[in-house]
Write a structure and sequence with these properties.
Layout lengths: L1 H17 L13 H15 L3 E7 L2 E7 L4 H4 L1 H5 L11 E7 L2 E6 L7 E8 L6 E11 L3 E13 L5 E14 L5 E9 L1
Antiparallel strand pairs: 1-2, 1-9, 3-4, 4-5, 5-6, 6-7, 7-8, 8-9
Length: 187
């Protein structure tokens, strides 16, 4: 089952290989990268018990562990950050409620992050829900990754990841479509 983890990890790394090279950070959108990096630091410090489900095609594995490389686990959420110089004019911004922000890739733009939705807490303005859709297509492969992360306020007043899910597929032109998912629930 270790190979499921390695394949899911390699699927995540493909996003890194295809992102625009200009990743200079600017601040027009919600600072998802900063938020996730703060979560990584806190989770590495706390080492919480995680119920983790992984699937690659029909193969599934469930485990409980405190040994998680949080930077690697949440890397795709960092990749979904829109505050890159190359992204600045590429998204429409909608705010359907006072606590919901929806960023959608404009027609004609060719970037991997198709949409990003963030629902923040009314008082603290910290994210309660993050959802993103990443899609890529070229002559060699096409892929889709759906990301979802929920956060809750801990009794000590710190917002911390409660659940995260990454699911999708990768289809190489010379192979069958491979579906995958990773779900984590922090106890």
């Amino acid at each position: 089952m270790k190979h499921i983890f390695l394949i899911v990890l390699s699927l995540g790394l493909l996003v890194n290989c295809t992102n625009p090279t200009d990743t200079t950070t600017v601040g027009s959108y919600f600072d998802l990268k900063g938020f996730i990096e703060t979560q990584i630091t806190e989770l590495n410090k706390r080492k919480p018990l995680v119920n983790k489900e992984m699937a690659l095609g029909e193969e599934k594995e469930n485990k409980q562990t405190t040994e998680i490389d949080w930077r690697q686990e949440l890397e795709l959420f960092i990749q979904a950050d829109l505050n890159k110089k190359a992204y600045q004019l590429s998204y429409t911004i909608a705010q359907p409620t006072s606590t919901t922000y929806v960023y959608t890739l404009k027609n004609g733009e060719k970037l991997p992050v198709k949409s990003l939705k963030i629902v923040v807490d009314e008082v603290s303005k910290q994210p309660k829900l993050i959802e993103a859709l990443l899609q890529e297509e070229n002559r060699l492969y096409d892929s889709e990754k759906k990301l979802q992360l929920t956060c809750t306020m801990r009794p000590e007043g710190i917002w911390l990841v409660k659940t995260y899910e990454i699911s999708g597929f990768q289809h190489l032109s010379i192979t069958d479509k491979k579906t995958f998912s990773v779900k984590g629930m922090i106890n």
